[in-house]
Amino acid sequence: MDTLPLEILQRIFTLACTDGSHTGIALSLASKSIRAASRTARFHSIALIANPRCLQSFLALYERECEEAVSNGEDKPRIRHLYMTFLCIDPRKRYYSSSSPSLRRAKAHQDTQESSKDAPHKDSGRAEGNDRSPRKSQGRSSINDPSLAYYDTARRFLQLVAPDLWNLIIQVGFQYGGGLHTPLFTTPFPVLREFTLVELLNPEWLFDAIDVPTTGPAFPAVTHLHLLPHALERDLRLNLWATHAPHLTHLRVSGRSNEMIDELALAVGIAQGPPVPPKFPAVRCLLIQPGPPPPSDDRCGTPFEEYGMALFQLEAFTEKCRNAGLKATILPACQERFRATGVHRLREDWLNGEERAWMD
């Protein structure tokens, strides 16, 4: 190790740092010389549980390492593969991760304190005709809203890494999906090739700060898109993705795609009726993973009949795709709710390389 050129060492470290940062952490603790030599590679692959404390700490670390590299005349450490798991913090919807009881207790205590403080004001408001506007009420409650600083940190971090990312996975919640309800993307991701979104409600919020006529689409180079829609989502929002990922060649939908055949048909231009231009004219590969079957202990047979009919329609749809020259594949259905097993598989695919998820 002491005799190898720095360029060879950095190449070795880059090939090793593909496990979500475990190897990078070990290299940083090995010795001062190894820490310095591996600086550009240690952040190659990062899996981040983005709770407020971890996100703030990691952002500070990454900014410090970038500044030190620049001051030493070295290449900036670049994050190429990023898997971010966000908490569901939204005061209007009360989305909180069930794996974070301390956060729920803290927010409940804060709500109790605020309600007790506001009680006299509420009474006086009613006596005076209740002239408090909702805008003022929302403005006051947002002062102590913990999600504001959290999302601001997330935006700063994503803006910092956007120029370098090749592969990005955003997962919302730990046991259940939910909403973020804030713009996270403030700048395009010029070299991002693959994007995966796991159980996010209302994904339009992510892009609200992107002005397409001015900056262009958020994902101009993305070719692979994997969507795992939230259980409450009624569609895939494919108009949104057609706007921000116009050069898509591979589309994968997992979890509920047997319910969204009509939308997928419009996406690839094989819908029934008069011909319509496809939303994704460059798509050549479509992977569909149906949702889980109904519970086996259900006394009524109707859900099973509906599920079987949906699978039959899905088979017919993929046959039309293949006849049109599109490679369409139906993956084995989820054995249970996707969150229970699918996220683990998704993480394995990510750790084993971005191609594996598209080999089925």
UniProtKB/TrEMBL annotation:
Q: Which domain of life is it from?
A: Eukaryota
Q: Where is the composition biased (Basic and acidic residues)?
A: 108-134
Region: Disordered; residue ranges are 96-144
Stated name of the protein: Uncharacterized protein
